[in-house]
Amino acid sequence: MQDKYAIQMIGITKAFPGIIANDNIMLNVKENEIHALLGENGAGKSTLMSILFGAYSPDAGEIRIHGNAVRIKDPNVATSLGIGMVHQHFKLVHNYTVTQNIVLGREPRRGKGLFAPLKLDDARQKAKDLSDRYGLFIDPDAKIEDITVGQQQRVEILKTLYSDSDIIILDEPTAVLTPQEIDELMQIIRRLKQEGKTIILITHKLKEIKAVADRCSVLRRGKLIDTVDVAGVSENQLASLMVGRPVSFEIEKADKKSGAVMLSIKGLNVKDSTGVLRVKDLDLEVRSGEIMGVAGVDGNGQSNMLDAICGLCKVQSGTIELDGCDITSMPIKERIQKGLGFIPEDRQRYGLVNEFTIAENVILKDYDKSRYSKPLGVLNMDAAKAQADELIKQFDVRSAQGSATKAGSLSGGNQQKVIVAREISLSPKVLVVAQPTRGLDVGAIEYIRHRIVAERDKGRAVLLVSFELDEIMNLCDRIATISKGSIVSVDDAKSVTAHEIGLRMAGSKEASDEEK
Amino acid sequence: MKRNDLNRTSFIDWFLGNDGAISFAVVILGFIFGTIIVLLVGKNPINMYKSLLYSMIGRARSNGGWNFRYIGETLNYSIPFVLCGFAMAFAYRVGLFNVGGEGQYIMGMTAAQTVALLLPPFPGQWVVCLLAAIMAGAIWGGIVGLLKARFKVSEVVATIMLNYIALYLSRLICLQHPGATTYNTAALPATSKLAKFLIPSSNLNIGFFFMLAAVFIYWFVMEKTKAGFAFRATGYNQDAARCSGIPVVRSISVSMAVAGAFAGLAGALVLLGGAYPKGRIIVSMDNYGFNGMAVALVGNCRAIGTLLAGLLFGVMKQSQSLMQDMDIPKEITYIIQGLIVVFIALRAGLQLVREYRAKRIVASKVASV
Ligand SMILES: Nc1ncnc2c1ncn2[C@@H]1O[C@H](COP(=O)(O)OP(=O)(O)OP(=O)(O)O)[C@@H](O)[C@H]1O
Ligand SMILES: [Mg+2]
């Protein structure tokens, strides 16, 4: 035995009603390596890591940490064993500050006793130091509700760094980071390795695996398929290992035949909940039959713009027109009826009702249409189930109990598929999409991009906001770059390079950093 | 062997995931503690159970024969418990905590009494009384709904305040009624009283059918209709509901009004179905509204669950007189009800355990509050 293992998971099995999430899995993670975990949506990655973190107890199997057999009955045990985890869905208290969230559950106090006052100064300083050290750019006094999803992710990372874990599990940490931020995170991960930590990285992005990981384990439908040395395989090989068939990364799409302006935003100004002006005099037009991409660094007003379009927040001034009709201050229901579709960035909060089944979630927006109606105002659940079954088939949603599965029990990627399926199936005139492929495996990304292109070809107007420049470059016909709340340029996708867009985004980033 | 492993979901997970099982356990637990207390004060708990059983099956204590009056009273008592249960449940399913069942009940009773005493008697007057009560309860609840939806006023605070306003407003109004003394008014006209049925020796009256109708309506609206779908979506995830175009402001106002309507109806049925011939000038609350909260929580805010819990509370209320005959302090029923409420609060805890088992993230406990 020349290699020492930090983690050995031996014969781990975990079943949920109707599905075997982990089937006799053997996972060995060497000391001080970066170990990637790859697999389709619903393959069982998060479940396996939740078992390691003490969130689920396995039905069978054994765990050894640094060679010692352990029973991890809850996350506190995991933490005391030096295991830290950044979850796929953030677990932050929205009206607390960053510092308060970081110390949550282990609050430092002045003196003893239940009512001793909190002593947050040191924690605040430590959080700030860590944030500076790893380049997370997190203000320890910011409230969670006022920062973007991307920044929230970084707070979660900061949280594990704060508790000095020596084994760090990252469940899709890069899903919402911008390319620059991902590079920074990769640096952090390498630095952590230099400091002797062991890292497990779950990601659907093969590039990231190639960039940092030493070894990679591939899961498919609950089974461990293989563990490979990353240096010895190509991205394509990894992809086909995972999906079980070759995957194409390029999207083929016919030349665009864009038509009339379907969404027109003029002079839009939007403030966030703290009264800061986030969107400033923003102008943007999206035509039918085109995909308009919005590229930009997270926090430059994208989410506020999206909220304004969808009616989730009030507009300071300016107009939003949908197919010639002013929707600036229209109730959400009417916007939807006028033909607005929306795939939200924060799917847990705005996209799904976790306690509802897939069938109920599928009809969330058009449950009052005649196709789901029976006499006396009765909801036609059979029609809803039929529709759900159809979408489950089309979008390959992996669920334990079909259309009767509760949305909250789906894996992250499959939740996303349900939302995307619902919105695309409504085929709205204007489809507003935020991070549509966030957290999806390469097979699913391929399919959903095809569906978005198909919408475009049907003559719909698509507005796509994504932090992934690759996605924007690949998918869009025109690209608008957003910076400090305004659109700074609109280019034809063919006449501009990723490098140029990246520079514009980066340039604006430097500028906005100076301002801070 | 493998198959076995995989088909097995542990009993604990099943139990935690099954609301009915938890409610059942909570009730059993309440009775176990109640039994212990009876033992501690040196009485025979068998007698307690006998009283409960006799109230349910209508067995006479004295001569070993039958006395169906007990069943009638039990069913009659359960009417306001079940209806006030729905006053809680309907709001709860939309994500609101209606502490105002009591006030809505009082307003319903007051409206029914006003219509009964101020209009000249006419056949079928009781129908008008019931409609007035439903309206009054709905308005009393709806006010809170509007305040909540438009101005984000906490429905808990608002309903508690309105309970007291209702109590004193009711006194103000009823003291004006003909023949009012400090505690009652003139007799209610016979045309306003509810007809008895089935067991004439008891107070059981046609109000029972209104209660059964309410069970059906609640189930139908909540579980089957499109409106119920919108209500439930709003209750589970208001943000997602809003984002999907569900009018959450309307859901909130309407649900509080409907909740109030249930309680208002309860107030009228108690007044018009009771044995007391005169109108009431209440000095304190009847507590059906508050007990209704416990009923709804025990019944897990489902139609059948609330019905069963309401019947249980009805049995307990009826058994009080039997208990006194059998040397059991009747207060034990209040203690058991109180214990059940305490243990029901454990459900919230169990919910956390379940979430904890499901997600097992320490912070989620705080985040989900
Ligand atoms: N609490 C639960 N109850 C029931 N089924 C569950 C539960 N958690 C997960 N599952 C099921 O187990 C399977 C594996 O889910 P898991 O979250 O581990 O997938 P994943 O590999 O992390 O996928 P993704 O890449 O989409 O995040 C899925 O089919 C999911 O529906
Ligand atoms: Mg996952």
Task: Write structural notes for this entry.
- Chain A is α/β, with parallel strands linked by helices.
- Chain A folds into 3 domains: 5-243, P-loop containing nucleotide triphosphate hydrolases (Rossmann fold, 3-Layer(aba) Sandwich); 257-339 and 429-516, P-loop containing nucleotide triphosphate hydrolases (Rossmann fold); 347-427, no CATH class.
- In chain A, 34% of the residues lie in helices and 26% in strands.
- Chain A is built from 17 helices and 22 strands.
- Chain A has helices at 45-52, 75-80, 98-103, 121-133, 149-162, 179-194, 206-212, 235-243, 302-310, 332-338, 347-351, 358-362, 381-395, 412-426, 442-457, 469-475, 498-515, and strands at 5-16, 19-30, 34-39, 60-65, 68-70, 83-86, 167-171, 198-202, 215-220, 223-229, 261-271, 277-287, 290-295, 317-322, 325-326, 340-343, 373-374, 378-379, 430-434, 461-465, 478-483, 486-492.
- Chain A has a 6-stranded mixed beta sheet with strand order 6-7-8-3-9-10, sandwiched between helices.
- In chain A, β21 and β22 form a beta hairpin.
- In chain A, α4 crosses α5 (149-162).
- Chain A is globular and about 65 Å long.
- Chain A starts with a strand and ends with a helix.
- The model of chain A is unreliable at 508-516 (pLDDT under 50).
- Chain B is an all-alpha fold.
- The radius of gyration of chain B is 22 Å and the shape is globular.
- Chain B has a domain at 76-307.
- In chain B, α13 packs across α14 (303-325).
- The A-B interface holds A 13, 15-17, 20, 50, 53-56, 59-60, 74-76, 87, 91-94, 101, 104-105, 310, 312, 331-333, 335-337, 342, 344, 349-356, 360, 364-365, 367-368, 372-373, 376-379 and B 5-9, 224-230, 232-233, 236-237, 239-247, 356-357, 359-364, 366-367.
- Adenosine-5'-triphosphate (ATP) binds at residues 16, 19, 21, 39, 41-47, 88, 398-400, 409-414 of chain A.
